[in-house]
Amino acid sequence: MNTEPKPPIDVKQAEARFDALAAGFANARAEIGRTIIGQEHVIDLALVALLAGGHALVVGLPGLAKTRLVKTLGTVLGLDTRRIQFTPDLVPSDILGAEVLEQSREGDRAFRFIEGPVFTQLLMADEINRASPRTQSALLEAMQERQVSVAGAARALPRPFHVLATQNPIEQEGTYPLPEAQLDRFLLQIDIDFPALADERAILVATTGADEPVPEAMLKATDLIEAQTLLTHMPVPEGVVDAILRAVRSLRPGPENPGLMWGPGPRGGQALITAARARAFLQGRAVPLLEDVAALLQPALGHRVQLGFAARSEGRTVAELIRTIESGLE
User: Fold this and answer.
1) Beta-carbon neighbour count of residue 101 at 10 Å?
2) Which of 153, 173, 196, 327 is the most exposed place for a label (fewest CB within 10 A)?
3) For residues 201 and 119, what is the distance between their CA atoms, to the nearest angstrom?
4) CATH numbers and ranges of domains, the chain
C-alpha cells in the first residue's frame, strides 16, 4: 500500500470534481473496451487497482490479451509506460538500474547512475514468474515504498507509479511461484478466462482486418493522481468496515480454519477498503457498499490465502472459502 502523505484537499472543490472525473473514467473505460473486447470485468478490476493506488497481478494463459490490456491502459490513461520481459537470466540491475564508472576528457572518474525501466509511471512486468525469485524480489521496495535503493542511495520513483504484472499459470513449465511477500504487495489478482463465443467472434473480426482499433488517450496522469486523492477522502460506512474485518479475520489460520497455512494480514483489509472506494467511484457512487466488498473478495484476498496439503488433498479450494464469506455479505 502507498504510505506517502496525502496532499490537503478542498471538500467543496472535491465535490465539484467528482462527477467530472467519474465521467472521464467512464469514457476511458469505454475506450479500453474498444480494444479489449469482452473483458469488462477485467477492465474494471484493472482500473480499480490503479484508482486505489495499487498494483495488480494479471493471470491467464498465453494469448488472452494480458499484455495488450496493460499497453492499452497506459495509452488511454496517458501514463508513461515501460515493459520488462522477465526471463530466467534477468538480474535485479536490469530492472532497477546501476551505477557505471565514467571517465571525463580530463581523466576524472566518477560514477553515474543509469535508471532502469522501473523509473516510469506504469511498469508492465511481463511474465513475471519466469524470472528467478531473487529477480522478482527486486520489485519489493519499489512496489511498497515507491523508491529503489541502489549503491546505498534511495531514489524516488515517478508519480503515479504502478506495476501491472502478467503471469502464466504456475503449472506451466519454466515458471517460479512468486514469493508470499511479493504476492501481498499486489492489491488485486485479476484472472483472465477464455472469452465467450460472441466476444471471441468479435475479436476475430476486429483484429484480423485492415481497421484494427487503436486506443486513444482520454486522460492524463494528473487526472489519475487527482482521482486517487479524492478517493482517500471517500467515507466508508461502519457496516462496510465491519464486513471487511470479518472477511479478513475469517481467512486466517486457527482452530476454526485448520487447513490454512497462512491468510491475509492488515494489508488485505486495506486493499479491500481502497478497492471498494475505487469500485464505487467507477459505478458513479460516492460511498462504497457491501456489494463492492463482495465483488472484490476474490481479487483482493485470494492470492493472500494458502491451503495446506491436507486441505488441498480433500478437494478444498480458496475460492470455495471466499464464496462462503461472500454469501454471508449478501
Assistant:
1) 8
2) 173
3) 39
4) 1-233 (3.40.50.300), 235-330 (1.10.8.80)
Q: How far apart are CA 292 and CA 294, in angstroms?
A: 5
Q: At what angle do helices 290-301 and 238-249 cross, to 10 degrees?
A: 30
Q: Strand pairing partners for 260?
A: 307
Q: Phi and psi for 108 in degrees, rounded to 5?
A: -75, 145
Q: What is the pLDDT of residues 179-219, one digit of tens each?
A: 788 888 999 999 998 988 998 898 888 888 777 778 899 99
Instruction: Extract the C-alpha cell encoding 237.
Output: 460506512
Go through the chain and tell me how many residues it has: 330
- Angle CA 190–192–194, to nearest 5: 165
Distance CA 78, CA 316 (A): 43
* CA atoms within 13 A of residue 322's CA, in its CB half-sphere: 22
- Cell numbers 479489449 label which residue? 36
Q: Which candidate, 211, 190, 208, places its Cα nearest to that of 200? A: 208
Whole-structure pTM value: 0.88
245: Cβ contacts below 8 Å, ≥ 6 apart: 269
C-alpha to C-alpha distance for 130 and 123, rounded to whole angstroms: 16
> For 75-87, how does the pLDDT look when each residue is reduced to its tens digit (9 = 90+)?
999 999 999 998 8
Amino acid occupying residue 168: N
| Residue the block writes with cell 517460479 | 176
